[in-house]
Amino acid sequence: MLVFAHKNNMHTLSWNYIKEKWNHAGFQKYFRNTGWMLFSKILSMAISFVVTAYVARNLGPLNYGQLSYAISFVAIFSFIAGLGIDHVLFRELISNPEKKKEFLGSAIIIKFFAGIVAMILTVFFGFYFGQDDVSKILIYILSGTFIFNAFQVLSYEFQAQVKSKYPSVISITVTVILNLLKVIVIFFNKGVIYLSIILFVESVLYMIFYWFAYEKILKEKITDLVFNKKVAITLLNDSWPLIFTSAFSLIYARIDQILIKHMLGATAVGIYNSAVVIAEVWYFLPVIIITSVWPAVINSKKISEELYYKRLLKLGIFLTAIAVAVSIIVTFISPFIIKIIFGSAFAEASTILKIYVWACVGTFLIYLTNYYLVAENNKKGLIFLTFVPMIINIILNILWIPKYGIVGSAYATLISYSIGPISLFILKDKIKGLLKK
Fold first, then answer.
1. CA–CA separation, 155 and 214 (whole Å)
2. Residues with Cβ < 8 Å from 355, sequence gap 6 or more?
3. What is the spatial distance between Cα 382 and Cα 365, in angstroms, rounded to a whole number?
4. Distances 44 to 50, 175, 237, 252 between C-alpha atoms, Å
5. C-alpha span between 260 and 270 (Å, rounded)
6. Is the whole model's pTM more than 0.85, yes or no?
7. What distance in Å separates the CA atoms of residue 288 and residue 285, rounded to the nearest whole number?
8. Tell me: the pLDDT tens digits for 368-410?
């Protein structure tokens, strides 16, 4: 009877504890914030997934590969347009909300002019290294997105205020519009050039909607944003390692498709990218989870170092568990997924997917480590996190693509992505101390 009573009391205490936490105002705030982001990403992903399948099936591996190659080529230069300031800006908007106009205004101006430079360089290198006229035209069109992307920094003000509902609505709206346009283009038998124009329009729509939301929802004026030279220098000074890490990350994330195009042709890129699209669709999970709870993690450091590192550790374990679960499920159903989504013409992608999806584990932890290193302003750690995997990925792709084809590239990606979690040893002393308690 005593044992039964004890268990009953424990059950009551557990239920009361859960109920108390659930009703906590802070929890509800972050829960709703995360819910909106999760809903937006899942819905946008579902819509994009269906349309991507429709587009790929109608384009075929060759044309789909041409478009994928151009997107990868342009993406490599996006580090110039971004300048790595996004994470730093988010941190400053949380820590110094009273200076948001200076930080937002300075960030927009910096990224606008950086976008112009990125566009010019992309066009220049596209002209000299593009393999054919179609690839060059696609690259020229997509490079224009760099200029308009500057205004997307406004989304970080919504996130800093834990108001992700509005960026989520914007994301859904833009996704619906763009994918409807893609369907129309394919329905009328238009080619990849029209699709690249739609991708260019995406950046313009985001600028318009964020501008509108900033003024109507937050009741602020874009014209009130101020460029402050000292703030700009602060952003660039703190973000310069992120410029390199962003460049390294983009290179080792996209170099495989570029090398495949040059060594094996556009058709191989189309097959390979169909697997990549499915594997990387899950990468929204760590972004949503970390972005939503990061203000709480950062603020916990003001309470105690122990609480700060405990939250980091729990977040890391949670992300790892999700990544492993996703990888196992996708591995078993990969042939079915490829056949249903892309069709028999892309059947070879099933093998690639089984390999590539396991990069989720390393990638999820890389996201967390990157946020941590930015918060700690650990410049050496940030550079290490991306430079070493980039070098490994480039070397392995050059060695294995000629020998093993796109399968070799998939293994090269898996290995290089798995190197990232090594940087977690930066936290080893803190983690070991917590595990002993």
1. 9
2. 407, 410, 411, 414
3. 13
4. 10, 6, 35, 26
5. 10
6. no
7. 5
8. 887 887 777 777 777 777 788 888 889 999 999 999 999 999 9
Rounded to whole angstroms, the Cα distance separating 82 from 153 reads: 10
User: What CA–CA distances, in Å, run from 284 to 132, 293, 434?
Assistant: 33, 14, 29
Look up residue 212 and give its two tokens: 């509108």
Residue 239 near residue 83 (C-beta atoms within 8 A): yes
Domain spans, the chain: 30-435
Q: What is the DSSP letter of 154?
A: G
Spatial contact of 232 and 189, defined as CB atoms under 8 Å apart: no
Question: What is the per-residue pLDDT across 320-378, written as a single tens digit (0 to 9) for each?
Answer: 899 999 999 999 998 888 888 888 888 888 999 999 999 888 888 888 887 887 777 77
**Cβ contact 156:291 at 8 Å:** no
Q: In terms of residues, how long is the chain?
A: 437
Helix, strand, coil: what percent of the chain each, to 5?
90, 0, 10
H-helix or E-strand containing 341? helix 305-341
Angle between helix 25-76 and helix 305-341 axes, rounded to 10 deg: 60
Instruction: Tell me which residue of 23, 30, 24 sits closest to 165, measured CA to CA.
Output: 30
Distance (Å, whole) CA 434 – CA 307: 10
Structural tokens at position 22: 């659930």
